[in-house]
Structures are given as C-alpha cells and as structure tokens.
Design brief:
The chain is α/β, with parallel strands linked by helices. Helix content is about 35%, strand content about 20%. It is built from nine helices and 13 strands. It has helices at about 5-10, 25-35, 65-75, 105-120, 125-130, 145-165, 190-200, 230-240, 255-265, and strands spanning about 15-20, 40-45, 55-60, 75-80, 120-125, 140, 170-175, 180, 210-215, 230, 245-250, 255, 270-275. It has a six-stranded mixed sheet. Strand 4 (about 75-80), helix 4 (about 105-120) and strand 5 (about 120-125) form a beta-alpha-beta unit. The longest helix has 18 residues, at about 145-165.
Length: about 280
C-alpha cells in the first residue's frame, strides 16, 4: 500500500506518532516523498531531535484522547505509530486512557487502537508503508548458520512462540541448547547484552555460539508494535559473543539493512530470515 493509495482510500492527513530510533524519520521521509500530508505527534518529554522545528502534538496518558480528537478535527484520518516508546508512565492528573497499565503489551496496544478507531481513525502499521524493510526467507550475510545454530534458532523460536501466548516479548537467545534469556519490558538490546554476561554459565563459554531469534507474538496486532532489528542489534550481538541473528521471514523489519548486514559481515555473524515453520 502506498501513501497516495492510502490517502485516496481514507482521505485526509496522516498522523505519525514518532517514537525512538530511525524508523519514524524513515517513515516520514517515505510518506512526504509520496506527497502525503503529515502531522506529527510524540510522547511529551521524548520528542525526537529530528522533529525540532516541526509542529508536533505532545501526547501523554492524561491528554491522549483529546489530542487525537484535535488531530482528527485538523483533518487527520490515518494514524501510524513508529519507533519505540516503552511503557508510558503516569504524570500528574487523571488519565484519559482507560487502560490497565499493568496488562501485557499487546493487550495495551489493542486498547489504544480501539480508542483511535472510536474517534474515526484508520490505524495502519508502519510496515505497510515500508514493505521493503521486510525480508523473505534466506541468508542475508556472508556467514550462514551451522547445524548447531539451526538447532539453537529452532529452540529459541519455540520459546518465543510459547511465551507469546502470555503476551511476553518477541525475542529469545539460545546458545549451546540453553536459553540465556527472553525479551521483557527492557527490550531486545538489554536481552542481548545480558545474554552475553550469562555466557559464562555455558558448558563451553569460550566458544562463540548462540542465536538471537526475533518474531511477532502469536496473534499479535502488529499495527503499533512490529518487531525490528537494525545496526545496533548487529553490534550488540557481536559484543555478546553470539554467532548470529535469526528472524521470522516477513515478520521483522530490518532498519538500515545495508549497514546492518555490513556490520554483521564485519563481525562474521549470520543473519538468517527463517520460515516460521522451519
């Protein structure tokens, strides 16, 4: 779906909620180059530097609904979320968002989407505008996984799939058949670096081994939280002493693919886009 085809379908402007990382700016550039009219929103206190000088609606849990009503009244009909924001915290005053902040991530995402749709927005995932960030099945690097890494990746995939039903994270690290960690609210980078520390517990800690596996949760609504990796992921996997990265084919965005692959090749890591049923 292109920006212009979406605009023709829904009418109006596109509201981009810009979180951390490179994805929001990449999305904005893609939409602007396609001629779409854009309004920006960001979490109060966490406005990306690249939005300096651009009109930006500041959003909190206290004003979430009213701010998006304002965006709708300004002509926005499509809402897109891009980049990480973590779990928003309460500020002073009553929240407009009737959501249980102690619920799992996907449950909270679904509630936010329901509220936007009730206002009248079409909520669209960033990946629908950026399909080139998805990778089909195959090896993306010079290095390829060996048999032991294939086993570790399969084990990690089973862990991610099982934990996904409990609305836990989208990633796990397995090395030498042992799970070194799973993604929690602290995110993938923390998982990878903590797994590097845990390598001392392996049967053969001196041997470089282990796979970071990342994939969507089963039945996850991907419009607000599509899994992604990028250059920092490759750098952290190298620092952690792992052998490579496996992702679900067409289920994970690769940000700045050329640089991510370059860093992986430089560190002699593999990146494997793996069929979900492999």
């Amino acid at each position: 779906m292109t920006a212009l085809s979406l605009k023709n379908r829904t009418g109006g402007k596109i509201a981009i909620f810009a979180g951390d990382g490179s994805l929001p700016r990449l999305l904005a550039n893609r939409l602007e180059s396609a001629g779409a009219a854009i309004r920006f929103a960001a979490l109060e206190g966490r406005v990306p530097e690249w939005l300096a000088g651009r009109e930006t609606t500041l959003v909190t849990l206290q004003n979430y609904i009213s701010k998006y009503v304002e965006l709708y009244e300004d002509g926005c009909r499509t809402a897109v979320f891009a980049g990480g924001i973590g779990r928003p915290q309460m500020l002073s005053g009553d929240a407009e968002v009737p959501v249980d902040l102690e619920s799992g991530d996907d449950a909270m995402v679904r509630k936010f989407i329901e509220m936007l749709e009730a206002i009248g927005f079409a909520v669209v995932g960033a990946h629908e505008f950026l399909p080139d960030l998805l990778a089909g099945a195959g090896i993306l690097t010079d290095m390829a996984p060996e048999a032991k890494e294939l086993r570790d990746a399969a084990h990690a995939a089973r862990i991610v799939h099982a934990l996904g039903f409990f609305d836990v994270g989208q990633a796990a690290v397995v090395a030498q058949g042992i799970c070194l960690g799973v993604e929690t609210v602290q995110g993938t980078d923390h998982l990878v670096l903590a797994s590097g520390e845990a390598r001392r517990l392996l049967p053969n800690p001196a041997r470089r081994s282990g796979v970071l596996y990342k994939a969507p949760k089963p039945e996850q609504d991907l419009r607000l939280d599509f899994p992604a990796i990028g250059p920092e992921t490759a750098s952290n996997v190298a620092k952690a002493g792992l052998a490579g990265i496996a992702i679900e084919a067409n289920g994970v965005m690769i940000l700045d693919r050329a640089e991510t692959v370059r860093l992986a090749n430089e560190a002699r890591l593999f990146i494997w886009s793996r069929n979900a049923d492999a």
